[in-house]
Amino acid sequence: MTEATKTGSIFSSPTMSAEGSPELELDASPIRTSGFIALGLGLLSFVAVLGPMLIVVPALAILTALFAIRPTNGVRPVGIKAAWIGLFCAVLFAAWGMSERHLKSKLMSERASRYASQWLQLVAQGDLELALELQVHPTRRQPSSMPLADYYRRSDTAVMMLKQFKDQESMPALIKAGTKPKWELAMPPTVYTRFGRELTRTVWRDTTGTYQSPLKIELEYLPGKDGKEAQWKIDLVSDYMDDSDRV
């Protein structure tokens, strides 16, 4: 065998190759950025459990996710799956936040109503010193061992406080009515927040007609700190005129 034959046989050996184009052609999937934005907003939606105003975060996440998963022609965009995850998280946290606030509002309404009813009973029975104490911040109330009647007779400051309490709006007529009124809620309580304070408004009416005007009692909820239990404080007592003073 000649040298040329040997050389030719080496370079004429069969080779393996792809049929058609020597390059693999892959369709590039488009990226849908809104899907990843929806995912980020969905994960951030946990803030909805912290306050009612923050419900805007899951709302934005839901709108962004719905925009991201809109129908498309051709190749499925990258980001659709992320949008679905963001949508799920947003709905979950929004529902969690709303249900938690609903339960808290219901619980606070019930307790505030019971507390206000007990306060009205104190005033009706003439226990004005104790009724006044419940309008004072818990940190400034007299200890339970203190005889309130004696304290409000002997202390000049306490005497002045009791006088101002009796002269408050609605108090003279309320004290005069005594035990005659039979109080019931005139409308469901309203739970709201003002300047970081958790307040509940209750409106009462006297079914006997002795006290003719509806009575508004607003209470502040004071969360417990340093292991101490939570407290309620009577924040405002006045005649209820109309719905214009609602928050």
Could you tell me the strand content as a percent range?
A: 15-25%
Helix content: 40-55%
Work out the helix count.
8
Q: What low-confidence regions span 5 or more consecutive residues with pLDDT below 50?
A: 4-13, 20-26
| Largest sheet properties | 4 strands, antiparallel
Helix-strand pattern = HHHHHHHHEEEE
Judged by helices, strands and strand pairing, the structural class is alpha+beta
N-to-C CA distance: 107 Å
The strands making up the biggest β-sheet line up spatially as 1-2-3-4
Radius of gyration: 36 Å
Mean pLDDT: 85
- What is the total tally of β strands? 4
Indicate the overall shape: elongated
Map the helices and strands:
Layout: H1 3-11, H2 33-44, H3 56-68, H4 80-125, H5 128-133, H6 148-154, H7 156-166, H8 171-177, E1 183-194, E2 197-206, E3 215-222, E4 231-239
Antiparallel strand pairs: 1-2, 2-3, 3-4
